[in-house]
Amino acid sequence: MDDSSISKLSDRVDFASKTILDWVEQDQPITVVSHLDADGLAAAGIIGSMLERLNVAFKVRIVKQLDEDSLKELSSEPISPIIFADVGSGQKDLIYSNLPEHSVVIIDHHQPLEYELERCVEVNPHLFGIDGSRSISSSGLSYLVAKSVDLNNVDLAPIAVVGALGDRQDSGKRHNLVDLNESIVKEAVEAGFLEVKFGLRLFGFESRPIVKSLEYTIDPLIPGLSGNYNACLKFLERIGITPVDEDGNLRRMSDLSSNELRSFMVNLVKYMLSKGIESKEAESIMGTIYIISHEPPTSPLRDAREFASLLNACGRLGVPSIGVAICMGRRGEVLDKAEKLTSRYRQTLLKYLDWLSRNLDKVRQTRFLQVIYGGDYVDDRIIGTLISIALSSRILSPKKVAVAFAVSPEGKVKVSARADKALARRGLNLGLAIRDAASQVEGVGGGHDVAAGAQIPLNSEEDFIEVLDKIIAEQLGSE
Ligand code: C5P
User: How far apart are CA 26 and CA 39, in angstroms?
Assistant: First the structure.
């Protein structure tokens, strides 16, 4: 990533902000279309806050996927300018054919279709040689646009950090954000909105009682402890840490002495090793933690990773508007609802992880793929997260690409694919492979080098697998 790439991206960001300000000047109501995952909701929240502060009328639509159906729905509404966030770059052809008269801004970090579209300003790092899967997410790009509109929007930086973490962009050696994300982190820290620490990457470790934080951690999955409160209590007692204080309150991280904290870290890593987790993975429980300074100490929004998980729960359990509202600063009842969704989301993921662990013998192996058939048992909005965790927790092998199918309520097949970064270093580009394979079976797909998705017709799964296996063989140079 050189200076000229950054300066070209920055020019494009300024062009997008000027376009949006022109729409505002002409008093045109704006439609924001974004994606249902944490990064998409964070992007929609940042853009929503920016437009709200500009006093312009706007509405937000959250889509599971930007496909012909969702675009047809948009085309039936009165024509207004549209900002696509976290979707759009891979669907420019569909936007072009379905919305021929709309002015459009696309703010997206997925691998784009090569041609540029008239009537459209596209802010995408890949267009300037910057890797959108690691350097910056769609919420980060939305933040850059918001800051170009008004420097006071710097207070939205923590939401961009939440989105990037939601998209697993913490790819630095210490599980830290890198490149352009790192610059956003720096700005947020300097402005007093964010604190960065090194510590245990347990769920809400700073904000929750330790036993709860251990129980709630499912990414990575800690076998025997994740989701099991009593086992977590026993584990703490066994390593000499009393989980409850003299007054009967559950103890928090801030209640532990430095010796207890050290013992906790060492024993947790030892425990993970004893469960057969590789040392690199076990040690990865330690890493960089991002704390949002102005959130109250016990808020689920204080730890940016926990915030991201709450957004994923809202989006993937069908109430994305709650997530967007929270990113726009709403609290109270919406936050209570989001907490309930987070708990349901965690239970659901644990159920699926258990199902997968018990059915590993049914995972179909091809030369380059391990294929999971979720049928209508696994929710099509959650299957991607399931295989992400299964791969990072090594329930699935890192040596092959994980591909999972789920049948969506719309009667199509949702495909999610994930791969270990080592395969990308050997030449794998899952986003391109999935896009190509999906189009060969009359589906649509795309994404990033190690995480991609698609929608394909029912009963085309086997053809899809055959084609995908061949494309991946070519990418890895081993026919
Ligand atoms: O849906 P899933 O979580 O498996 O998608 C993985 C990545 O691929 C996400 O970043 C998603 O936005 C992207 N994707 C895409 N085009 C699709 C489906 C998914 O770019 N048709």
Answer: 30
